[in-house]
């Protein structure tokens, strides 16, 4: 039957008779113990879809048919764990005769069948990613959304992992059911495939949104969002005896899915509050781990992998956890900052309009959502940074800057999260410049929660530290800008930072941090501008007159002397940033003239030109005053 049939009075038949017979023959092979046979059977189903899609066959009906099989399989397996029986034909979007034909082949359905069908559906989704038109993807998501809505996915997994018939002497639920060890493996495989499938569905929904070019959010995103608390409980319940490697994998997949969801849809107040609570419940160790005490590696790509099957010795040393910590901290800050920007209808009115509550406020006091979320961030920072610094202004500022650098270094080896975190920090309101510009004293601001938060995440300070971490290498920035993975986010970050720099020029020029703080910097790339035959000509050609490049990552004895025109070391931060950004401007212009830049950089070039104008004015001001 063609998927374009105009017969709307009856339910679709989910494919022609030949397709149904093929599926009936293949489904039982998914239940056997041989992984090879399971794998081949699943691959045949994927090839069947590929053939139908390429030959303009009934691929629509075939996807629907697989969804019906998945619902029937879950019904069968769930009924073996629960006394609750589901009506086999209830909510199924096909004719009853199709259900009657399929049911005999699913009488022996087990967890392997459910896992196999999920894997097939996910592999089909991968094939859909290769198609340019979005309609098949939307149709696929519609069918899967219906399947998610009509079957007890979470109850199935939860009860399969926690059969109440299997308790030890203390009443603690066990994973093993007293049968062969294959049951444990089957359950964990099911949970792993299910997590992968949910992540792929979220990814596909995001691709569809970009292709359609609107704020379209498929209902499946909200369906998956509602499942997050139960899925987390299934994966990370503290009573379960999963190995550290499995726990780490489950954490990674859950965090990745939640981060992607948070970027696709605007979560409402209750979801954001729930997610913050879930992070505290299941990820508290990763969230509270001291950032400034972490050992930085030159290349942490392998050590940070959540898939690393660590030995007990490596686990004892904490290897492989930086990646999870990056994800947890980012999601925690994103939820908290989103709450700061949200407005709940039943919120009590803010006591003041400037969002500057005292540190003496207790979490159980009633105040607006913005204050609650701000206090949440501050409490986390307070655990990360010792409070004894409040008595001394120099120590206070140094510790804040040290922590800012530490959190930046945490993300330097993961480019996609790096720019997400940098952009997230730009969302915070700022009051830190009031102290830097002398508008308020340290004693006046030390009890200001917003000051502590905004000082650590001050965008201009972080921008300076970010450039220093790159050794002021404009080529690294250029690589970020032309990368298909980071180009958009890096371009947005530079545009927004340059606007802030131009609006707060004095703060940018006067930025200073004790160089002992940056002496342990973990650079993204070795500085490209070492002393050489062309280094002086490169710098002087910018028209700025600066002939000094100070790297924060070499010993003091190796550093060039500061340019005497600045008279103090803090001018070096401005000078180095100036050289880096103006060289970046020249490189972008050269690539654009050769039609080699991957997109239109006009907006960025305008901001860089404005930056260059302010640099010239700064030099004229210095000359006129000396």
Radius of gyration: 29 Å
pLDDT < 50 stretches = 1-15, 164-181, 297-304, 309-319, 348-366, 432-438, 525-570
Q: How many strands? A: 0
Count of domains: 3
Anisotropy-based shape: elongated
Structural class: mainly alpha
- The arrangement of helices and strands along the chain is HHHHHHHHHHHHHHHHHHHHHHHHHHH
Helix proportion range: 55-70%
Distance between the first and last residues' Cα:
87 Å
What are its keywords?
0% strand; 3 domains; 27 helices; mainly alpha; 60% helix; 626 residues; elongated
Structural account:
This protein is mainly α. It folds into three domains: 17-217, no CATH class; 266-457, no CATH class; 464-626, no CATH class. The protein contains 27 helices and no strands. Helix 3 (59-81) packs across helix 7 and helix 15 (369-384) packs across helix 20. The longest helix has 31 residues, at 182-212. The protein is elongated, with a radius of gyration of 29 Å. The model is unreliable at 1-15, 164-181, 297-304, 309-319, 348-366, 432-438 and 525-570 (pLDDT under 50).
Please provide a brief summary of the model.
This protein is mainly α.
Question: Can you lay out the helices and strands and say which pair or pack?
Answer:
Elements: H1 17-26, H2 35-54, H3 59-81, H4 96-102, H5 111-128, H6 135-150, H7 153-161, H8 182-212, H9 219-236, H10 244-264, H11 269-282, H12 284-288, H13 312-316, H14 322-341, H15 369-384, H16 393-411, H17 415-425, H18 433-436, H19 442-445, H20 449-456, H21 459-469, H22 474-482, H23 487-503, H24 505-509, H25 535-540, H26 571-593, H27 602-624
Helix pairs in contact: 2-5, 3-5, 3-6, 3-7, 5-8, 7-9, 8-9, 8-10, 9-10, 9-11, 10-14, 11-14, 14-15, 14-17, 15-20, 16-21, 17-23, 22-23, 22-26, 23-27, 26-27
């Amino acid at each position: 039957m063609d998927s374009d049939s105009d017969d709307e009075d009856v339910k679709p038949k989910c494919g022609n008779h030949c397709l149904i017979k093929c599926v009936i023959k293949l489904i039982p092979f998914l239940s056997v113990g041989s992984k090879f046979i399971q794998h081949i059977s699943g691959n045949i189903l994927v090839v069947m879809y590929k053939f139908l899609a390429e030959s303009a066959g009934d691929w629509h009906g075939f996807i629907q048919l697989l969804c019906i099989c998945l619902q029937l399989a879950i019904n069968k397996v769930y009924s073996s764990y629960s006394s609750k029986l589901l009506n086999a034909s209830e909510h199924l979007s096909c004719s009853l005769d199709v259900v009657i034909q399929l049911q005999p082949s699913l009488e022996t359905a087990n967890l392997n069948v459910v896992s196999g069908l999920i894997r097939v559906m996910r592999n089909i989704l991968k094939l859909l990613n290769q198609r340019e038109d979005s309609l098949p993807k939307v149709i696929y998501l519609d069918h899967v959304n219906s399947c998610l809505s009509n079957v007890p996915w979470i109850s199935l997994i939860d009860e399969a992992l926690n059969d109440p018939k299997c308790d030890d002497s203390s009443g603690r639920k066990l994973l093993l059911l007293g049968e062969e060890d294959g049951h444990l493996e089957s359950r964990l495989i099911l949970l792993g495939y299910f997590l992968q499938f949910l992540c792929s569905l979220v990814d596909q929904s995001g691709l569809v949104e970009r292709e359609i070019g609107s704020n379209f959010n498929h209902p499946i995103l909200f369906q998956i969002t509602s499942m997050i608390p139960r899925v987390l409980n299934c994966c990370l319940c503290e009573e379960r005896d999963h190995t550290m490697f499995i726990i780490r994998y489950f954490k990674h997949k859950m965090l990745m899915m939640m981060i992607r969801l948070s970027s696709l849809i605007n979560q409402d107040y209750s979801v954001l509050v729930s997610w913050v609570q879930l992070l505290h419940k299941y990820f508290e160790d990763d969230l509270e781990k001291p950032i400034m005490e972490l050992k930085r590696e030159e290349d942490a790509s392998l050590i940070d992998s959540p898939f690393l099957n660590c030995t007990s010795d490596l686990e004892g040393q904490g290897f492989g956890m930086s990646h999870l910590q990056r994800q947890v901290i980012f999601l925690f800050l994103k939820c908290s900052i989103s709450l700061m920007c949200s407005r709940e209808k039943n919120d009590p009115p803010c006591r003041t309009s400037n969002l500057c509550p005292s540190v003496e406020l207790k979490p159980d006091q009633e105040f607006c959502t913005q204050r609650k979320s701000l206090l949440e961030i501050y409490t986390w920072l307070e655990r990360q940074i010792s409070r004894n610094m409040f008595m001394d202004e120099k120590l206070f500022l140094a510790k804040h800057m040290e922590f800012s650098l530490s959190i930046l270094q945490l993300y330097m080896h993961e480019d996609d999260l790096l720019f997400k975190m940098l952009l997230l920090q730009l969302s915070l309101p700022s009051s830190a410049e009031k102290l830097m510009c002398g508008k308020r004293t340290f004693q006046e601001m030390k009890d200001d929660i917003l000051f502590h938060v905004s000082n650590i995440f001050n965008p201009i300070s972080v921008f300076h530290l970010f450039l220093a971490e790159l050794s002021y290498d404009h080529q690294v920035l250029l690589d970020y800008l032309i990368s298909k993975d980071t180009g958009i986010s890096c371009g947005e970050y530079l545009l927004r930072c340059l606007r802030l720099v131009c609006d707060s020029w004095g703060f940018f020029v006067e930025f200073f941090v004790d160089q002992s703080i940056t002496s342990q910097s973990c650079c993204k790339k070795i500085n490209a501008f070492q002393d050489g035959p062309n280094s002086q000509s490169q710098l002087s050609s910018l028209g700025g007159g600066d002939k000094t490049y100070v790297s924060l990552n070499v010993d003091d004895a190796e550093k060039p002397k500061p340019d005497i025109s600045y008279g103090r070391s803090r001018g070096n931060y401005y000078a180095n940033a100036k050289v880096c950004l103006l060289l970046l401007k020249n490189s972008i212009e050269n690539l654009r003239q050769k039609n080699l830049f991957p997109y239109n950089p006009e907006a960025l070039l305008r901001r860089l030109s404005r930056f260059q104008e302010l640099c010239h004015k700064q030099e004229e001001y210095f000359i006129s005053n000396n």
